[in-house]
Design brief:
Elements lengths: L18 E6 L5 H12 L3 E2 L9 H6 L1 H26 L3 E4 L5 H10 L5 H15 L7 E6 L2 H11 L9 H18 L5 E5 L6 H13 L16
Parallel strand pairs: 1-3, 1-4, 2-3, 4-5
Helix pairs in contact: 1-8, 3-4, 3-5, 4-5, 4-7, 6-7
């Protein structure tokens, strides 16, 4: 975990110094929560590139053709966000983490919409880029059913998302389950039932209780292997 400010030392001071990642299915409400938390905690918010995404419309129109280019585009944009967070110092709220992109890439491969060779290239690139990334202090996972996700996608009524199917969202959620199990070994994860929306006050209290009140320090002991 990147706990150092550039040119100085990191010091936790309440939630204002936390790098918080918001994770979850399409349409879960990540952007709404990220915005509310950013305003509530006076933290900068780093949004998922949607309106200015040059590939998104093509991706939904011809997923197999544009899957690799879209994943690389998103990886690059989120890496830029990570670099900005590192150089700014202090905390921030990120609307979908860079780690989740692999969930979408793996689902595309499983559905035959991304070539295995492209997927290996994507993973290799991510691995090299991860050496220069600052991990979030905590990931808040907004958990909801694929049915609720699809309902919310329909509610926000984005033209490019009209082709999203329940089967695709169900496949994504299965990958998310594996992702949350794996990422929680490196980064604390707060899993929240998001079938019902919560306000920023409540979520800030949850993050403070579940993260700041927990002790992640572990003491290592060992015996000398040779005489001194």
């Amino acid at each position: 975990m990147c706990n150092a400010r550039f040119g100085g030392h990191f010091r936790m001071s309440g939630l204002q110094d936390l790098f918080i990642g918001i994770a979850g299915l399409i349409g879960a409400g990540k952007t709404t929560l990220a915005t509310a938390l950013g305003q509530h905690l006076d933290l900068p918010v780093y949004y998922e590139p949607v309106a200015d995404n040059e590939y998104l419309a093509d991706f939904y129109r011809d997923t197999a053709k544009y899957s690799f280019a879209t994943q690389i585009y998103l990886l690059n944009r989120r890496f830029q966000q990570h670099q900005e967070i590192i150089w700014r110092g202090g905390g921030g709220v990120q609307d979908r983490t860079i780690y989740e992109d692999a969930v979408f890439a793996k689902t595309l491969v499983d559905q035959g919409l991304m070539d295995e060779r492209d997927y290996r290239t994507y993973l290799d690139l991510f691995k090299h880029m991860s050496n220069f990334m600052c991990r979030p202090h905590v990931i808040v996972y907004l958990d909801l059913t694929p049915e609720s996700s699809l309902s919310r996608v329909h509610e926000r009524n984005r033209d490019v998302e009209t082709g999203i199917s329940l089967e695709y969202l169900a496949a994504l959620r299965r990958e998310y389950e594996a992702f949350i199990t794996d990422i929680s070994k490196m980064i604390p994860v707060i899993r929240v039932n998001w079938e019902q929306y919560r306000d920023a006050d409540e979520m800030a209290a949850v993050i403070e209780r579940e993260y700041l009140s927990s002790n992640f320090l572990r003491e290592v002991r060992w015996s000398p292997t040779r005489g001194v």
